[in-house]
Give the backbone structure.
Amino acid sequence: MKKSIFFLICLFTVMAHSQEIKPIPQISVTGEGKVKIAPDQVLILATVETKGTNAKDVKKQNDQQMEAVLKLVKSMDLAPTDYKTKRVSLNPQYDYEKKKSSYNATQTVEILLKDLSKYDELMEGLVDKGINRIDNVTFQSSKLAQFQSEARKLAMKEAKIKAEDYVSVLGQKVGAAITIADNSQTYYPQPVYAMRAMKTESMNDAAPRETMAAGEIEITANVSVSFKLD
C-alpha cells in the first residue's frame, strides 16, 4: 500500500512539473552553400593488358610494358608517393567454341599528377610505353578540405538569413542556434575522360593539342538549423 501511494505521489509530481515546462519558441530552416573551384591536380588510373596462349610469356610481356611505364613516370619527376600499382592479375580464359585456352594479364597503376601542364605529355607517354587502357581520369583539388569548410560556412549564413527573413514580419529576433544537422553528402570527385588519349595516323604531331577540359569542381554543403526566437 505504501508503495502504491509513493508511486502516485511521484506520478503527480512529474505531471505537475511537465505542465510547467513551456515550449521554446524556435524556427527550423535549411541552408545550402556552394563553392566552385578550378582543379589543380588529376588522378589517372591506367592499365597494361596483355593476352596470349602461354601464361609465362603473357606475364613477362606485361611486366616489361609496366616497367617501361614506371620508368616514364619516374622521369617526369613525380614523387614516389604520387604513383602506385593498384591491381595485378593473371587469369586463364577458355574459348568453348575453339576449345582453346588463353591467358589475360593486367596491371593497373594509379598516378596523381600535380602539374596539369604535363597532362598531355604524360598521357601520350603512357600509351607509347604500353598502356592500352585508360580506366578513368579524375580532376581534383589539393585544397578540398579548405573549400569544404567555406561551403559549410556559406550554408550556415544562408540558414540564418532565411530565419531572419521569416521572423522579420513577426517583430521577433533570431537567437542562438538550438540544433544543427549536417545534411551534406560525401564529396566524390567525378571522373572526366580525356577527349583524346591515343595517337592516330592523321594527327599532326607538330600541331599544338589540347586533350582535356578540366572544367570546375562544385562543392556543396547542406545544413538544417533550429534557432531560438527572442
